[in-house]
Specification:
CATH architecture of the largest domain: Up-down Bundle
Oligomer: single chain
Structural class: alpha+beta
Largest sheet: 4 strands, antiparallel
Number of helices: 11
Shape: globular
Order of helices and strands: HHHHHHEEEEEEEHEEHHHH
Distance between the termini: 33 Å
CATH class of the largest domain: Mainly Alpha
Helix content: 40-55%
Number of domains: 3
CATH superfamily of the largest domain: Butyryl-CoA Dehydrogenase, subunit A, domain 3
Number of strands: 9
Strand order of the largest sheet: 2-3-7-6
Radius of gyration: 21 Å
Strand content: 5-15%
Length: 386
């Protein structure tokens, strides 16, 4: 059982108040029109949310991953897209903090902590999503810079953000493809020659947050922006960052499912059929009981993975299990809670339809669940090797 500290309770109270007062009342001004919620993002900067896990010595809050996960749950219960603004930003910050040179940490992390530099992860390509080894983006050393060419797609924070962690091949002929990749810190605060946000990708859910296809055409990135200063380590850097990403995606799934459950149980106590609130009908009670049980189980998996990450242990298995279970749970629960509301749940008068549209993102994001199962199985074979 996780007992929250006084500091954690205080932080969550601040985030909850922010969500109740400044996010929930305005979601419908942005989400249906796929508008970027700049005022909310500006407020997140003031609250220090962009620096959640960035070490204090570099201007961040230096919070543990358990608190990080709980914050993501709380934001997602209000509007999951808001958590998305922080998601890949936090992965980029984690990679720099864990693997960057001291000069890179001092140059980038303080600005990431304030939200001046808002990051994303440029990993996925049109022909390389789950198959990361097949990325085609190239980075070639040219004097004091690397020249990057390639296309990335489904990139969060690429239009409204100001920085990206870019994975590119620096040695296409490496014996092991993973050893031929490097990660670069790319800033696009101003117009950068050769860098183009080609198009915005319109989505079923996860709306209001920029998701784009971007291209690099002979884009020069200073050699000093090679993460860690050593080529061939990018795959390891990104995979490590995705452990954190899977924790935050799993936490988002818990938040969305929790919001769906809370809306449904309130409705069930107010809606009367056959002379009594539907909350007293056995069929509805079974849906509510199953939903609550699954949400609680998912939260414990998330916090277990986060706590293990805080201890500095390997968590690819735990993060994968949490992400797999929580995201599949979210898909089931949002549909079941829509059943509680009946026809009203299918309308835009209630939030259930938004939760239902947002749920698939967690099943697909940070590695599809099909890939997740393979990762889990491979880790189990390693753990229980004869």
């Amino acid at each position: 059982m996780f007992e929250l500290t006084a500091e954690q309770k205080e932080i969550l109270a601040v985030v909850r108040e922010f969500a109740e007062r400044e996010i929930k009342p305005v979601v419908k001004e942005y989400e249906p029109y796929d508008r970027y919620p700049q005022p909310i993002v500006d407020r997140m900067k003031e609250l220090g949310l962009f620096g959640l896990t960035i070490p204090e010595e570099y201007g961040g809050a230096g919070l543990d991953h358990v608190t990080y996960a709980l914050v993501f749950e709380e934001l997602s219960a209000a509007w999951m897209s808001i958590a998305g603004v922080l998601g890949t930003h936090s992965i980029m910050a984690y990679v720099i903090a864990a693997y960057g040179t001291e000069e890179q940490k001092r140059r980038f992390l303080p600005r990431m902590a304030t939200g001046e530099l808002r990051g994303g992860l440029a990993l996925t390509e049109p022909e390389a999503g789950s198959d990361v080894a097949n990325i085609q983006t190239r980075a070639v050393r040219d004097g004091d810079a690397y020249v990057i060419n390639g296309t990335k797609t489904f990139i969060t924070n690429s239009r409204h953000g100001t920085g990206l962690l870019v994975l590119a091949k620096t040695n296409p002929n490496a014996e092991r493809p993973s050893r031929g990749m490097s990660a670069f810190i790319f800033e696009h605060v101003d117009d950068v020659p050769g860098f183009t946000v080609r198009r915005d990708i319109h989505k079923l859910g996860y709306r209001g947050l920029d998701t784009c296809e971007i291209t690099f055409e002979n884009v020069r990135v200073p050699a000093e922006n090679l993460v860690g200063g050593v080529e061939g380590q990018g795959f390891k850097h990104v995979m490590s960052g995705l452990e954190v990403g899977r924790i935050n995606v799993a936490a988002r799934a818990v938040g969305v499912a929790r919001a769906a459950f809370e809306d449904a149980i309130r409705y069930a106590q107010q809606r009367v059929t056959f002379g009594k609130p539907i909350a007293h009908h056995q069929a509805i009670q079974q849906l509510l009981a199953d939903a609550y049980t699954q949400i609680e189980a998912a939260r414990h998996l998330v916090l277990h993975a986060a706590a293990k990450k805080d201890r500095g242990e390997r968590v690819d298995l735990e993060a994968g299990v949490a992400k797999l279970f929580a995201s599949e749970m979210c898909g089931r629960v949002t549909l079941d809670m829509m059943r509680v509301l009946g026809g009203y749940g299918y309308t835009t008068d209630f939030n259930l339809e938004r939760y239902y549209r947002d749920a698939p993102l967690m099943i697909i994001g940070e590695g599809t669940n099909e890939i997740q199962r393979i990762v889990i199985a491979n880790r189990l074979l390693e753990k229980y090797a004869l």
